[in-house]
Amino acid sequence: MIHRAAAAYVAICSAALAQLPAIAASDPFTPTYAVLDYEGLSGWSADDQQAALNVFLNTCGDMKDADWQAICHLARDSTDHARTFFEMFFAPVLIQDGTPAVFTGYYEPELDGSNTPSRRFRYPVYAMPPEMESGTPWLTRREIEETGILAGRGLEIAWVDDPVELLFLQIQGSGRIRLPDGNHIRLGYAGNNGQDYSSIGQEMVRREIYEPHQVSAKVIGNWVKRNPVEGVELLRHNANYVFFRVLEDVPPDAGPKGAMNRSITPGRSLAIDPAFIPLGAPVWIEKKGFRGMRRLMIAQDTGSAIKGPQRADVFMGTGEGAGREAGRMKDAGRLIVLMPIQRAYAMLIEDIQ
């Protein structure tokens, strides 16, 4: 089946290539492209491509271009031949712009909370107010908290017991709240106040509270608990404030929704810069350092700090353990995008021209 469909796929790709945008040669930041072979991918033969194919199938149906749609159709008939499928219909493309590769990790926080406020649960998680447009500059974190402009308007989704964990929930952009009865509220990103994000860890280093290697989420949390007054001021250094929405359609055992509005998968979903890598594309990563990785992942998410063709964020899962793993990750390496073959060579030709 997979061989009989190849000719039809090539015809579809040829038509799709005519719609590809040209690369502006005058742009000093124009990336370069190199088409590699699979023998040059370190660890390729040892990876579980079947696991990656299963994740690819979760979102490939949402990719709009004709060549991707054709590949997605073929993928559904290739579930017993995952490695052959990827090698037959994709070419590995190394995209570079002169900046070194950086891999970080992210996770879905899980906080203790309640549907009603109490002495313990007194930090509200807010939905976005109707008068605000996401990304448009609005009140700062300090102004929101000091004026109480959101309080008592029915915007409270829940209340949590830790302001630092709430901050990290906002940084991650999605998460779960564990209620006293054992149920959960799943939260998705709704928008932000349009103010710039500032790192609390970097601010602690600037104030000479800690050395860079000492800073972690747990260290920040413990310091704020020991210094409640100064801690509030420290957290307000980050003017950015994130609002949430309740996700009713995500099963408790599924991952949070990524940028493609589908659940993402720990260890196989990747946040990338869609200016260089199409959402939904397979991406081979060779990550060094902490828990080095050689595996095929799927680009299913984005992030405000993920910029450039060699920048990626690995989704590590849900909860405190995943958070610890993600927090230790800041590593070098390289990432290689698997592109439909004719699209890959068209990019290479445009680069040469």
List the secondary-structure elements in sequence, H or E: HEHHHEEEEHEHEEHHHEEEEEHEEH
Strands side by side in the biggest sheet: 1-2-15-11-12-10-13-3-14
Q: Mind describing the biggest β-sheet?
A: 9 strands, mixed
Our measurement of the CA-to-CA distance between the termini, rounded to an integer number of angstroms, reads 37 Å
> What is the helix content?
25-40%
Oligomer: single chain
Signal peptide: 1-24
Protein name: peptidoglycan lytic exotransglycosylase
GO molecular function: hydrolase activity, hydrolyzing O-glycosyl compounds; peptidoglycan lytic transglycosylase activity
Keywords: Cell wall biogenesis/degradation, Lyase, Signal
Overview of this structure, please?
- This protein has helices at residues 6-17, 49-59, 66-76, 82-89, 141-147, 163-172, 200-206, 217-226, 228-235, 320-327, 341-352; strands at 32-35, 90-96, 102-108, 110-114, 123-126, 156-160, 175-178, 184-192, 242-246, 269-271, 282-287, 293-301, 311-318, 330-331, 333-340.
- The protein is of the alpha+beta class and 353 residues long.
- The strands form two sheets. It has a nine-stranded mixed sheet with strand order 1-2-15-11-12-10-13-3-14, sandwiched between helices. The chain has a six-stranded mixed sheet with strand order 5-6-4-7-8-9, with helices on one face.
- A hairpin with a 5-residue loop joins β11 (282-287) and β12 (293-301).
- α1 (6-17) packs antiparallel against α3 (66-76) and α6 runs antiparallel to α8.
- The radius of gyration is 22 Å and the shape is globular.
- Keywords: Cell wall biogenesis/degradation, Lyase, Signal.
- One of its GO terms (cellular component) is outer membrane.
- This is peptidoglycan lytic exotransglycosylase.
